[in-house]
Amino acid sequence: MDVTDLASRIASGDRRALARAITLVESQRADHREQALALLNDLARHPRQALRIGLSGTPGVGKSTFIETFGLMLVGLGLRVAVLAVDPSSARSGGSILGDKTRMERLSREPRAFIRPSPSQTHLGGVARRTREAVALCEAAGFDVILIETVGVGQSETVVAQLCDLFLLLLAPAGGDELQGVKRGIMEMADLILVNKADGDLKPAAMRTVSDYAGALRLLRRRPQDPEGFPKALPVSALEDTGLAPAWTEMQTLIGWRRDHGHFARRRAEQARHWFEEEVRQGLLAVLTRPGPVRETMARLGDAVTQGTLTPEAAAAELLAQL
Amino acid sequence: MDVTDLASRIASGDRRALARAITLVESQRADHREQALALLNDLARHPRQALRIGLSGTPGVGKSTFIETFGLMLVGLGLRVAVLAVDPSSARSGGSILGDKTRMERLSREPRAFIRPSPSQTHLGGVARRTREAVALCEAAGFDVILIETVGVGQSETVVAQLCDLFLLLLAPAGGDELQGVKRGIMEMADLILVNKADGDLKPAAMRTVSDYAGALRLLRRRPQDPEGFPKALPVSALEDTGLAPAWTEMQTLIGWRRDHGHFARRRAEQARHWFEEEVRQGLLAVLTRPGPVRETMARLGDAVTQGTLTPEAAAAELLAQL
């Protein structure tokens, strides 16, 4: 594969080249990995910056419809939009979110849009690296906005928060009692809470939910990276395409403020350090899983531990002494 | 400290010695660590086995009341009960679940009960090790049942599932729409789902919730470690002490079956291997955080990454080449 050629095709906005490059960074093969790093290095020489928006929401809140409507709106404004997914659960289920492009049929037909489903992965570290590199590739391809979708479970929000400039939490209308159903940690990450399905019969419930969350957000300490009044809760209807334009205006206000006050650049710098350290950790741990004497010793000691002839602590001490 | 003396006091059931030993395994000091390992090794020579029960539930479902009532019931049956907590969020909040023993005032006054709050910890790896070692100490102290409580967030359930023989999920009564609020992964871990607050006005809602979850559980594939009919959903009222005796009977049935079919021993063996591997991983990563040249290089490269003069990947490759 000619990496330089692939790089220039990506830089010129060729979506097929981009798709191929993402497949390359997803590959576990050593020669592919080498090519992927060469490609990323090549593209890093001419950096471009997209607005990276993370989007979290549990199944059923209407994430796909939201992404479709929001994406089409951005495309209509002349922007190029890429959609990526982080789904560590796909390792277990074998499935993937975004797996079915028909979920976003209209957006996927747009020449200015690019949708990439989440691959099956074996561990969150792999998911994180793959997504981070896919983000870099989409930026190099000149996209203006990158939407990074995740399901509302466990660690995946943390990964997305470390990848994005702006974090959206999408919710469905609910009764007041369910307020605590949203994990506190996720609410603390959110820059905007969007209550979807503010249409038809559900509109009153949606407005109540917005006001409940607005109240809850006021109880949280103001973060240094937020101007007065943020984070906000807003009603939207992805189905009827209402509220999305105001939400986009709020996002631009927030990001503009963060750029002006240095928070945007600082966050990206901190994220880069985080990913460097994470990459080091993963690289260090790789010695345990790579074929070789260490992996063999680990398997042998592991057998002794399961047979009860060695405690986990003693076995670990023995292996670590050898490393 | 005389480790042999401490070990024999623990083995004789001295609760103060046990509390002191848990403080020892929680300590970060190198000399304490050495003593802790010697103590665990000493105690491992005369292994005892408790039934380890994991308990998860989001705030507000009545976990403390449940533990108090359930613990008192077990104590009334002549059993010795220890209660531990896994709370990785305490690192951020500075607080801790179980922090306030007055939450379980009656149980904490029982001579046959032992309650240990969760300490503040900096990372989940530390929480897991500390809890695992505290479990080992409680077993050595001759407790019959160890309850390991966790809040329903993120990775802590995974830690608890790797520590317990039986996993309980405690829920509050809810409307049918909220069914999906429980993370699928947690439901798949649960051996028994207990719907609390099946009393007073909430009783009808609790019974509906039980039947909703019973239906949902039937949709999940039967796991090899379960006899026919498990996992089950049952109503309980910790407040009125109803349903707890039947729940305990179900737990004994399940555990008896697993013992008879080899699943109990196999699970413990797999858990031991898991903790051995986890201990190796943590030990390997410690080189990055221990004071020394590696940590210094990491800090220097991290600065270059945040300043944008080096990509995360290139910096990681440089550090890894050095290791």
Automatic annotation (TrEMBL), chains A, B:
State the Pfam families in the record: MeaB
GO molecular-function annotation terms? GTP binding; GTPase activity; kinase activity
Report which superkingdom the organism of origin falls in. Answer: Bacteria
Please give an example of a GO cellular component term from this record. cytoplasm
- Where does the record place the AAA+ ATPase domain? 49-221
Question: What does the sequence similarity comment in the record state about its family?
Answer: Belongs to the SIMIBI class G3E GTPase family. ArgK/MeaB subfamily.
Q: Could you tell me what this protein is called?
A: LAO/AO transport system kinase
Q: Where does this protein come from, organism-wise? A: Cereibacter ovatus
